[in-house]
Amino acid sequence: MIPQSNFMVLAPIDPKREMELRQLLDSMNRAPGRVDPDNHLIPFGEFETLHFARLIILDDKTTEDVRVYGLAPRSYPLYLAFLGDIDGEVTAFLGKLIKRAGKGLGRIFSCCEGFDSDTDLLAWMRQHNAPAIAAYVNWRGRTVRQIREEGTLYDALENYIEKNATVLQNLTPRECHAKLRDFVTAEKSAGRLSLSEDSPTPQGWQIKNLLHLIGLPLLVLIASPLLILIAPFYTIALRRLEKTDPEVCPIADQKHCENLSRFEDHDVTNQFSAMGSLKPGFVRLLTTASVLKTVNYGARHITRRGRLGRIRSIHFARWVFVAGTERMVFFSNYDGSVESYMDDFINKTGFGLNASFSNGIGYPRTNWLVLDGCNDERDYKEYLRRHTLPTQVWYKAYPGLSAVDLERNTRVRQGLESLSMSDDEAREWVALL
Amino acid sequence: MSEVDYADVQGLVRFGYGHMTRASYALVKVKNVAAAKSWLRAASVTSAVATKPPPVTALNVAFTASGLSALGLPRSVMAGFSHEFRGGMTEESRARQLGDVGRNASLNWAWGSNGREPHVLVMFFAEPGQFDSFVQSAKGNTWTDAFEELTSLGTSDLDENEPFGFADGISQPQIDWEQQRQTPCSQMEYTNIVALGEFLLGYRNEYGKITDRPLLEPDSANAGLLAAEDAPARQDLGRNGTYLVMRQLEQDIRKFWQFLYQQAGGNLAETERLGAKMVGRTKAGNPLVPIQTQSIPGMDPAPAQQNQFTYESDPAGARCPFGAHIRRANPRNSDFPEGRIGALRKLTIMLGFGPRGFHDDLISSVRFHRILRRGREYGPELLPEDALASSPPNDPERGLHFVCLNANILRQFEFLQNAWIMNTKFSGLTGESDPLLGNREAIPGCPVTGDFTTPGDGGLRRRVSGLPQFVTVRGGAYFFLPSLRAIRYFAGDGSA
Q1: Out of B353, B365, B410, closest to residue A304 by CB
Q2: Looking at the partner chain, which of B419, B461, B463 has a beta carbon nearest the beta carbon of A336?
Q3: What pLDDT band is residue B301 in, cutting at 50, 70 and 90?
Q4: Where in chain A are the domains?
Q5: What is the model's pLDDT at position B317?
Q6: Strand, coil or helix: what is A26?
Q7: Which residues of A touch B356 (CB under 8 A)?
Q8: Which among A261, A337, A405 has CB closest to B430?
Q9: The pLDDT value given to residue B346
Q10: Which of A107, A101, A108 is nearest to A38 (CA)?
Q11: How does residue A409 score in pLDDT terms, banded at 50, 70 and 90?
Q12: pLDDT grade for B2, boundaries at 50, 70 and 90
């Protein structure tokens, strides 16, 4: 298995070059929200291990919200973020990226502070890496290559079925499965279909993963006497905050909303980027860190493949602190329109939303961290829309395919590779086609 | 929560006026503000009060955002209406979400775009004998001074059928007028009873919250409005009003039946069977899944024989295909798969360890996405058997003036249209949108969207490919259907 990893380059933009940068980013698109995969700056389509990428100017318009806590708003520099979700190791990928697109990257990053023509690109990118505090991968181990191969397999099967429908329709599911398996075997030996064997899991990753698996519970266990001791105080403090923290959910600006929509619904998958300031104080910071570390642990070791709780429409997601611990960004790649995404979340995993987002300033009032909050649908949606940022450049390696499509294709392939199937299994498998 | 004052609600919310078989929709622009206001003050708008015998005529009125601006509604008040109402149906990204691209694009519309955006929708309903005189008297003397008529859309009475020839209007949500429904945190079984706030502004919705609408600082102009229940110091302009979505959907009856006939190899019974699979009901309106014995809350007794079902008995779509029109439009599910379950099982499912079948738990909970349909057909009747003949010259246009009511256009109509009807990925499908309403337009990575799949009963699925576009959008707009008090406020009658 080749595990997925991610990177995010985060750098402050030279204010004098902001317009130039915006124009550069726009030039990578055919139209707003529609990237050119062969664009002249970073030809994303040429990188066979790249799932998703985005370039975004983190232009957070809500920094004034800290005033509700009597704090003076700080003037932050404007940041550029460049993110990717990839197969395998980051360093190796960045190496390839620089080799192929070093010039384009240089032009983009030259609009940032502290980058000039002599800068070592790789060192600079690594130096500006902003690690995710929590990350989710829909299907760990499924590579871009596998996704493409399985997509081709599915299309080939559909074509074959179209041509041989009358014969196939009269077969029992097991006969049908056998017939289709024969077809695929023949196609493979004729070199028309390729289904690569799974690569061995890198040993280093396995060890690190195991340590992570045991590490966090072990740490919690060791710290448990202390945790039990502070638990009542923590609970009292959190409850008091929950009751008094001000809500800031005004109706989002119509222009802002319409601008966001320009970048959405061009593919069956959409990008989502939201940013905001965290509520001040140690209790909130502790809560944020613990919740997100738990989410990260769960996403990595516990969730079933293809699912985040009940949600099956997220490809990749992550939470990242922006330069310090005052502000945070959430990025995701999800299927469907933003409305179905928000509704799905409220109804299917509202508790998770509340736990992870309620530490942001102005979030609708929660109770016991997981209750209420986003159930105030109106406030929650305005809150989220207001904090959403337009994503200037967004790339997806497999347009037209939803996460559920990917799951179906994987199931089809897995079924083909199994030699014996019960009647029920065969029926379920045939129903995937 | 206080009781609903039916005298303040427009009748269309409570009644479909089925016995008033004649109707027309006037789409007008305000020509003269003072005259328009005076017409509104004089108009006797029909309320939702039930009378015996029921009225023989009815008049209802709705406004677009530009219409309210034309009447002089201040910008600060406008800002209290929802984003989608203010933005309008034809806004580019919204059009993309609704499937109004290609032949459906608003560029080609007969009304609702290209300078033909209405300000006001005036709906006239009457029993046949009364219609013409009613329209004339309802328009009165000020009408021509007040309004410029963009179009007047006629309707026809197809005797409970929609133009393709299928029984229609069978399934409607039952509104909880008495506000008895305790909106649960999780609804474990499908119910047809829907919170009042889903269809009327100012009341609690399925989330137990009151949907946003304009609330005004009290002054002499708005003194006639009711106070907001959740903010008693402010006047509630939305209360007892709702949003109305109108779309003119042209239906190509001949193309529909001829395509099915050809697919069925010229077999009439097979043609009808395929049509039923696409709709999810037979022409007579019988669902393709069996009627259940256990009653579903909120189903009227009369059509219950045709409505007492969910798709729980058909998880593989073998009887009613996943992509069938009525399964897309109302998947009849609850908040959780598996129906009534214990707290532990619920937690298991919430954490992602529930059923692991491919199609399991893919569809959002339907109770947040119901609409109240109030549309009417137009054009002369064309029976399916006659539709197989080639079209004569000047074949008249037929279709549906789709009208639906909802308190939250985004979460109800738009969601339904976008995530269920037009979505090529609905319920684990791919390459197909609604067999009736789909626009068949390619999307990036999906060149084909014109399939229709009938899952096999144990065997391989059957698939029809190359569905043509049967339904074309010819016009549309978002309206606000105000309370009678709000109409008086718009008309500048502060004493209301």
Answers
A1: B353
A2: B419
A3: low
A4: 4-142+201-396
A5: 95
A6: helix
A7: 304
A8: A405
A9: 87
A10: A101
A11: very high
A12: confident
In angstroms, rounded to a whole number, what is the distance separating the alpha carbons of residues A332 and A357? 14
pLDDT of residue B120: 98
pLDDT for res B204: 94
Instruction: Determine whether the interchain pair A262/B316 forms a contact, defined as Cβ–Cβ distance below 8 Å.
Output: no
What would the two tokens of residue B339 be?
């129906």
Count chain A–chain B contacts defined by CB atoms under 8 A. 146
Coil, strand or helix: which one is A274? strand
Q: Which of A106, A433, A354, A310 is nearest to B365 (CA)?
A: A310
- The tokens for B148 are 């410029």
What are the structure tokens assigned to A361, written together?
A: 């300033």
How much is the pLDDT for B295?
87
* Model confidence, pTM: 0.96
The 10s digit of each residue's pLDDT in A112-159 is 999 998 899 999 999 999 999 999 999 999 999 999 999 999 999 999
Residues of chain A numbered 155-194 and touching chain B (CB < 8 Å): 161-162, 165, 168-173, 176
DSSP collapsed to 3 states, chain B: CCCCCHHHCEHHHHCCCCCCCEEEEEEEEECCHHHHHHHHHHCCCCECCCCCCCCCEEEEEEECHHHHHHCCCCHHHHCCCCHHHHHCCCCHHHHHHHCCCHHHCHHHCCECCCCCCCCEEEEEEECHHHHHHHHHHHHCCCHHHHEEEEEEEECECCCCECCCCCECCCCCCEEECCCCCCCCCCCCCCCCEEEHHHCCCCCECCCCCECCCCEECCCCCCCCCEECCCCCCCEECCCCCEEEEEEEEEECHHHHHHHHHHHCCCCHHHHHHHHHHHHCECCCCCECCCCCCCCCCCCCCCCHHHHCCCHHHCCCCCCCCCCCHHHHHCCCCCCCCCCCCCHHHHHHHHCCCCCCCCCCCCCCCHHHCCCEECCEEECCCCCHHHHCCCCCCCCCCCEEEEEEEECCCHHHHHHHHHHHHCCCCHHHCCCECCCCCCCCCCECCECCCECEEECCCCCCCEEECCCCCCEEEEEEEEEEECCHHHHHHHCCCCCC
Per-residue pLDDT band for B302 (boundaries 50, 70, 90) equals low
Task: Name the token pair of B333.
Answer: 């599910």
Query: Would the pLDDT of A85 be above 50?
Result: yes
Instruction: Using DSSP bridges, classify how beta strands B215-216 and B235-236 pair: parallel, antiparallel or unpaired.
Output: antiparallel
B354: Cβ–Cβ under 8 A, 6 or more apart, which residues? A310, B337, B338, B345, B348, B360, B361
Closest CA to B404 of B20, B41, B89, B70: B89
Provide, as residue numbers in chain A, all residues whose Cβ is less than 8 Å from the Cβ of B423: 336
Cα distance between residue B457 and residue B317, in whole Å: 8
**Chain B, nearest residue to A174 by Cα:** B459
Q: Least CB-CB distance to B415: which of A340, A398, A404?
A: A340
The DSSP letter of residue A61 is T
Task: Evaluate if residue B496 carries a pLDDT over 60.
Answer: no
With CA atoms as reference, report the closest residue to A396 among A243, A272, A254.
A272
Nearest chain B Cα distance for residue A132, angstroms: 22
**Residue closest to B27 by CA, chosen among B104, B100, B102, B122:** B122
Confidence of residue B341 (pLDDT cuts 50, 70, 90): confident
Interatomic CA distance for residues A262 and B270, integer angstroms:
44
For CA atoms A223, A227, A230, A236, give the dihedral sign. Answer: positive
Whether chain B has a CB inside 8 Å of the CB on A422: the answer is: no
What is the per-residue pLDDT across B51-82, written as a single tens digit (0 to 9) for each? 999 999 999 999 999 999 999 999 999 999 99
Contact B93 A348 (CB under 8 A): no
Taking a C-beta distance cutoff of 8 angstroms, is the pair B363, B421 a contact? no
Burial class, B334, CB count within 10 angstroms (exposed 0-12 / middle 13-18 / buried 19+): buried
